Amino acid sequence: MAKRLFDLAIAAPALLLLSPLLALLALWIRLDSPGPVFFRQQRVGRHGVPFRIHKFRTMADRAPGLQLTVGADPRITRAGRFLRRTRLDELPQLIDVIRGTMSLVGPRPEVPRYVALYPPGLRERVLSVRPGITDPSSLAFIDEGERLARAADPEREYVEVILPAKLARAAEYAEHATLASDLGVIWATLRRLGGA
After folding, report:
1. What's the number of domains the chain is made of?
2. What's the pLDDT tens digit per position in 95-109?
């Protein structure tokens, strides 16, 4: 309950204060390439309940390809490159936090395809908490796209190397998280993005 109140106390004012910026980014996305402003995708939430995540669209509308983004992916738009580099594409997830499907800090939500690969014990632990906008794994793998771009088989690299490492960190977070540690993750995230 305290974590939920913490999320609302930060997410609601942040959404209000950032609304002019969000409106400008939405306009830029619409002018930059045809398609919707938001990218919505089914992800797996707390206790395995599916939900639709909100992000600013950073790729050409209906572009085919992997569900992973690899390096300088040609599907990424001009506006999208900036939004991804600065992580501003994640800001609409404040809506998901207010709706209660996400938290400010928690394991990043995956698509069903990759959740199906979670080992049963880890699956239960990782999905015992709400997914978040940021978490320790996000910080550790902030260069994930570049790592995948260097791999001969990006999806295999993700499934066999990156995903297990992220799951181990996510499970540790789920077991030991406190409001103080969440504040630490938020601060570390802001510092990393400020230095980007």
Report:
1. 1
2. 999 999 999 999 999
Instruction: Quote the crossing angle between the two packed helices 2-17 and 19-32, to the nearest 10°.
Output: 60
Query: Which tokens in the block code for residue 160?
Result: 């066999």
* Residue found by looking up tokens 């738009």 in the block: 77
Instruction: Give the integer Cα–Cα distance in Å for 6 and 177.
Output: 13
Distance CA 118, CA 38 (A): 28
Residue pair 118/167 in contact by the 8 Å Cβ criterion = yes
CA distance 124 to 47: 8
Task: Give 20-50 pLDDT, tens digit per residue.
Answer: 999 999 999 999 999 999 999 999 999 999 9
* Residue 22, token pair as written in the block: 């969000």
Residue range(s) defining the domain that contains residue 187: 2-194
